Fold:
Amino acid sequence: MTVLQNQEWRYATKLFDPSKKISDIDLATIKEVLRLSASSYGLQLYKILIIQNQELREELKKFSWNQNQITDASHLIVFCNYTTVTDQDIDQYIGLKEVMTQASKNDLVQYGDFIKSKIKEKSKSEIAHWTALQTYIVLSNLLNVCADLKIDACPIEGFVSEKYNEILKLTEKGLSTAVIATIGYRSDQDQTQFTPKTRKPADKLFETL
Ligand SMILES: Cc1cc2nc3c(=O)[nH]c(=O)nc-3n(C[C@H](O)[C@H](O)[C@H](O)COP(=O)(O)O)c2cc1C
Structure:
């Protein structure tokens, strides 16, 4: 199928078939695509939880508008952003870049100092907002790779972040839940798959200057 056909095929799945599970090989491809996602400066200031545990998902469902996708999909993906960024985080990234790229130490130190100075311009809440925004890029890649693999997905903002943070013990790790998604296979009974997409016409969405 073409890129466009894949996008037409995908939809935010409401009813998953609980008996169908994503294979290890597809899951490995999905993880690698998410790992390769672009992020601001390349810092990857997030963590991605892949939750299969059914008991945990039952508990999380209570704080997710009771949406069936949380428990019925093959996997629940939780995108968490780091709420603070320290100089050590930047040093760690620069250290990794040094190993991966063999770039000159001097250039990398300068780049690291530049990143540190730009981040220091942001307030605490701006930093948390900025790192949360990064997770949406990864979410978008998740939707696209799933469409390519003919795996269904539902992006979800209908959940209580504070409750997720508490249940998944994220706050003590400096993390917060930004957005979640479920992935798996659609149920034949999901009527949404037969509903045409509601989208603005291109002339209302785009402006060419
Ligand atoms: C960030 C985000 C959050 C969303 N949250 C929910 C949600 O909590 N529950 C749900 O059923 N759909 C959710 N959706 C799905 C949208 O309603 C859906 O993508 C939109 O209506 C377009 O339809 P389509 O994706 O099926 O083409 C969300 C989508 C995005 C991108």
